[in-house]
Amino acid sequence: MYILTGNGLFQTGQSSCGFGRTEVIDNTLDPDFVRKYILDYFFEEKQNLRFDVYDIDSKSPDLAKHDFLGQVFCTLGEIVGSPASRLEKPLGGILGKKCGTIILSAEELGNCRVIATMQFCAHKLDKKDFFGKSDPFMVFYRSNEDGTCTICHKTEVVKNTLNPVWQAISIPVRALCNGDFDRTIKAEVYDWDRDGSHDFIGEFTTSYRDLSRGQSQFNVYEVVNAKKKFKKKRYINSGTVTLLSFTSTSLHYMNPYQMNAYAMALKAVGEIIQDYDSDKMFPALGFGAKLPPDGQVSHEFPLNGNIENPYCNGMEGILQAYHQSLKTVQLYGPTNFAPVVNHVAKYAAAVQDGSQYFVLLIITDGVISDMAQTKEAIVNAAKLPMSIIIVGVGQAEFDAMVELDGDDIRISSRGKLAERDIVQFVPFRDYMDRTGNHVLSMARLAKDVLAEIPEQLILYMKSRGIKPCLLPPLNEEPGPEDQDHAQTTPV
């Protein structure tokens, strides 16, 4: 998966279907855009891209009403395969006119899901306005391996002050440093001008690791203008910027006073399902992480770290293994579902006489990198004694998960329809009680997410002609001829 960035005012399209527009940057011939586009990259496929550049003159969304400045065609492979994954091409499309150039860059996207929330203030910045002080704002850049920088955030403008306090900003850590905590982050400070010719005040560098220290003497930065420093011997700086606060959040964050969304969803659903398992021993797998000691990426690793025996004792055992695994593995992309679906399907395929029924609970933030393979795995699993529950946590768009849930359109793969619907998906956020009553939230979640399991089980049994086993009367010991039935009552 790659994140695509560009320099130039453009709308971008894949084949003939547009999928995004950048923000508009006023009054400049050399725009540098913040907005990025995330694309799945397939080495074996030709992925055509087209970039159209426009001069926006009004608020109309109709591009026909704006001035066309040029276009360029390329493939995603061209960008990825260019030196440092940075492609520069001339714009065309207007006969007899030079339209400028567009610079496109791509970077493999790390799977870091942490959000950093920071607030900054500045002190004694240089005065740039003749009638007044300055209208300062900051621009943050992520450094690249080839020495270039990619813009990743702009603050708001604070008018007429040399001591601005900017609003708190929330930036995905993968946008700041792509999960590399020691990668250089550059910040530039400007005085805003209406005509777009913003005056450069100065800059400083930091890193995510330094910022994560929070407010301290280490996070007071001198804003330096190299040109002024070269010209003036007594020059010290153009002011200072101070980090006022820093917090980072992750869906996997372990709050000592409250379970995270993953643990809450696991406990809510698991505590009900476990009553239908005789020994309360459950295999628990993780996916999308680098494992010690060699850092190999795995999509079906045992949470308890024991490959030979991945079973955990009840929900408490699973939660304990989950918390312990977060301390030993590094979460990492891509995120593949097919391996865990096939893992459970392998066991379900070995027991198709109705004596066992398997329920796979997947808790995910919605990112999936192997949609085609997962569809095929689900279609194959639909003929086996198993169901799949997917709980989506976080604020992501869950379009892919809804597609896997075959309520509206039966899932298919390679022209083959699933024999029955075995997937139930719910977004966890829909069940969060506004009053903070997590017990009520989990009860509602469990009720809805488990509602389809009995019907799915019965449909499988009926399709295979498997009838319920007869149990002996409560006060009667089973005879030799009833022994098998007494021990194999289906769920």
UniProtKB/TrEMBL annotation:
<feature type="region of interest" description="Disordered">
    <location>
        <begin position="472"/>
        <end position="491"/>
    </location>
</feature>
<dbReference type="InterPro" id="IPR036465">
    <property type="entry name" value="vWFA_dom_sf"/>
</dbReference>
<dbReference type="GO" id="GO:0005544">
    <property type="term" value="F:calcium-dependent phospholipid binding"/>
</dbReference>
<keyword id="KW-0677">Repeat</keyword>
<dbReference type="Pfam" id="PF00168">
    <property type="entry name" value="C2"/>
</dbReference>
<feature type="domain" description="C2">
    <location>
        <begin position="98"/>
        <end position="221"/>
    </location>
</feature>
<comment type="similarity">
    <text>Belongs to the copine family.</text>
</comment>
<dbReference type="InterPro" id="IPR037768">
    <property type="entry name" value="C2B_Copine"/>
</dbReference>
<protein>
    <recommendedName>
        <fullName>C2 domain-containing protein</fullName>
    </recommendedName>
</protein>
<dbReference type="InterPro" id="IPR010734">
    <property type="entry name" value="Copine_C"/>
</dbReference>
<dbReference type="GO" id="GO:0046872">
    <property type="term" value="F:metal ion binding"/>
</dbReference>
<keyword id="KW-0479">Metal-binding</keyword>
<keyword id="KW-0106">Calcium</keyword>
<dbReference type="InterPro" id="IPR045052">
    <property type="entry name" value="Copine"/>
</dbReference>
<dbReference type="Pfam" id="PF07002">
    <property type="entry name" value="Copine"/>
</dbReference>
<dbReference type="InterPro" id="IPR035892">
    <property type="entry name" value="C2_domain_sf"/>
</dbReference>
<dbReference type="GO" id="GO:0071277">
    <property type="term" value="P:cellular response to calcium ion"/>
</dbReference>
<dbReference type="InterPro" id="IPR002035">
    <property type="entry name" value="VWF_A"/>
</dbReference>
<dbReference type="GO" id="GO:0005886">
    <property type="term" value="C:plasma membrane"/>
</dbReference>
<dbReference type="InterPro" id="IPR000008">
    <property type="entry name" value="C2_dom"/>
</dbReference>
<feature type="domain" description="C2">
    <location>
        <begin position="1"/>
        <end position="91"/>
    </location>
</feature>
